[in-house]
Amino acid sequence: MFGNMMEQLQQMKQKMEESKQRLERITVEGVSGSGKVKVTMNGNRKVTGIQIDPSLLQADPEELEDLLIMAFNAALEQAESVNEAEMQSTAKGIMPNLGL
Questions:
Q1: What's the rounded Cα separation, in Å, for the pair 64 and 32?
Q2: CA–CA distance, 53 with 71 (Å, rounded to integer)
Q3: What pLDDT digit, counting tens, does each position of 20-45 carry?
Q4: Which of 41, 44, 64, 71 is spaced 20 to 30 A from 78 at the CA atom?
């Protein structure tokens, strides 16, 4: 019984690692200022890119800060959603193996 549980835990660890790798390849984008600010993240919530329209570099710094915050939060919200969906899918695949 103990050996079977160890095997199931190893399978769970492998499936979680596979999920993290899939999330690494998923890209989400947060946009603000009518597309003038874009933040790109992967499904693991890591920032992979930031684009700022050059016209904003001459604008009020507070406006740029606000737009960056909005874009980051939008990207983070999407990344969280993707991450949660992937983890739920993985958990559903694992739980039957654990007899839960």
A1: 10
A2: 13
A3: 999 999 999 999 999 999 999 999 99
A4: 64
Alpha-carbon separation of residue 26 from 13, 63, 82, 84, 90 (angstroms): 20, 29, 8, 13, 16
Q: From CA 12, how far away is CA 94, in angstroms rounded?
A: 6
**Nearest one of 36, 34, 48 to 78, comparing CA atoms:** 48
| pTM of the model as a whole | 0.79
Residues 6+ apart with CB under 8 A from 23: 42, 43, 44, 82, 83, 86
pLDDT tens, position by position, 45-94? 999 999 999 999 998 999 999 999 999 999 999 999 999 998 888 888 76
In 3D space, the residue among 100, 92, 84, 91 whose CA is nearest the CA of residue 26 turns out to be 84
